Amino acid sequence: AGSLYRARGDEVLGVVRIRQQRYPEAIKLLHQAIATYDVQFKDQRATSWFRLGEAHEGMGDDKNAVQAYEASLDLFEQGRMELYEASRMGFVGNSTEVYERLITLYADSHGGAYDPKQALYWLEKSKSRTLAETLGLAQISLQNPPASIQDDLQEERFLLERVNTLRAQLFLSSPEAPETASRLQLQQELFQHLEKLKALWNRIANVVPEYVNLRQGLVVQWDELQVLFEPA
After folding, report:
1. Is the pLDDT of residue 49 over 90?
2. Would the pLDDT of 33 be above 80?
3. Cα angle 181, 186, 191; round to 5
4. How far apart (Å, rounded) are the C-alpha atoms in residues 99 and 73?
5. Measured in Å, how far apart are the chain's first and last C-alpha atoms?
6. What is the pLDDT of residue 35?
């Protein structure tokens, strides 16, 4: 608990230093926060990377800014399904700004991180993220799925139903409330089901990679979606 408070304190003070335009101090504090947060606190670490990107951008250090923004988005992708609904939706709002800042830096021909290919890539990824937030854990059906993954898709439907039920139950309990045995049990079950879901998607990806990309928020082209979901 002590390390969590220290990390949170460094993060908050780092944000204050950004507002004061004392960017080197902010960078030091935010690096301390990232190093101190336990790996399980993906949302807090993602937010600290976001703020670190802001500090580097404030200094005109575009290359380190884009690296920090990418690290922030990567952490969010790793942990978005495990977050409380309130935390997840809160960072979805932040991630929109991170995407905008990242794309702007890569698209700025006068900046130090200019890379139009990366700008286009992250633009497409931001669109896929919006779709994934809607469809990532939804019950959607492939058209004419290969016979080899029929059993996997049936297991996926069961896991998705249980994961969504657990997330709803955890959302009804405030994240700030004291942990109880029942709540810890729900969190543990959620984690176990998410791990099973990830392993299942790894298997399905060998047959229908575009479908798993959609679930995970990776870049998916419109023609790929048509093949996945339109009747043959």
Report:
1. yes
2. yes
3. 125
4. 8
5. 55
6. 94
